[in-house]
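Q: Hi! First time doing this. I have a protein sequence and I read that you can turn it into a structure. Is that right? Here it is:
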Amino acid sequence: MPLFGDAGTIMITGGLVASACALLGVMLVLRGLSLMGDAVSHSVLPGIIAVFLVAQTRAPVWVIVGAATFAVVCVLSIEWLTSTGLVRSDAAIGLVFPALFALGVLGVHRFTADLHIDLDSTIYGEIAFLPFRVMEIAGVEVARGMVVAAVVLLLDIAFVAIFWKELKITTFDPGFAAVTGFAPRWVGRILLVLVSITAVVAFESVGAILVIALLIVPAAAARLLTRRLLTMVLIAVGIGWVAAIVGYQAAVAVDASIAGMMGVVALTAFAGALAVAGARRVRSHRQVTVAAATAIRQPGETAPRGDTHRR
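A: Yes, that's right. Below is the predicted 3D structure, encoded as structure tokens:
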């Protein structure tokens, strides 16, 4: 049995992946690139097929290398199309990842028919299988997926910490960033490449669908609750951990898919954030209406009963 037990391994790994995704997902949401996670998940298939053709192996390291290579190709292709000014970012995403996914599908039918590739297992993974894939560190058995998730999280933390100022400026005011000497295009490229690496590495451990959900849903929920970037990141990370822990407990209680239940919990958190944001908007609208009515009241007009403002 791995360190932390089966349940602890699944919840901790889910939380680590959620944290890594939240750090980058906030930037994706603020930059209007929410579909990038979905694009990456579809574009890795030709990389996986290329690994089978060249190395004739399904070893996780080689699968990750092949998938990450084509994920980077996807990201850079989308960025290049957008930089031309002729194609919008959403259209670029819709053009690139179906093309790469179609190339992968052709590769499956043409070159790997006799290899018995389980693409569902290779691409999408299954978080419930984490405790069965272990490695030894200092004589202690630890889930391999947990170690990988921790390494990716540390990489993302280092990137965000080092480029925090650049990320803020290029996200909120890329024009000003260019004038002041920053390189918004290169910062964006590094961010998207890191997103692709994070997503691909996490696929085997927790599954592509959960990675996509954790990239976008907690970040979108956090954006509804605050406008401060640091607070937004912390809230997104917190929502990710809640989704991992509560989702696992709920899945065990009702005998449901663990990854699916984690996604449902994250969506529930988003629904709660949406309700809070809606209530804030209604309250703000009412305050503006009252202020406007008070401002246009004629001098000498009797204030309504209960109005505490006196002239």
